[in-house]
Fold:
Amino acid sequence: MTEDTNVSVLVGRLTKDAELKLHPEMSVGYFTIAVNRKKRKATGDEEASSYIDINVYGNYAEIIIPSLKRGVQVSIVGSLKQDRWIEQGTRQNKSRLVVTANSIQILEGTPERKADHHGGQREGFVSGPIPA
Structure:
């Protein structure tokens, strides 16, 4: 019998600066990326965006979150997780999909940083798999 697979690979740009929350048991980083795609229509191709929530945990969150600013292009490898809850006021079942990042790589800085024309590694550049 084949095992199930849960792997997500995304490339997109941060919609706003990433947030870090320090909890007693673990640090958690939160951010959203916009992933663009072409949508075929009778009148021609059209750009469409999906907005994907990303979480990163532990020491790696503390290391990478300061580098994740609005407009930065990142590559994410992770797994999908479904959050489920009951909305207090309406008592309706709600859910959302979130990607839990296993690896984050900064591909390109913000347009302002690109204009700096600095060669080599960018200040604050952090990438690679999350340490165990």
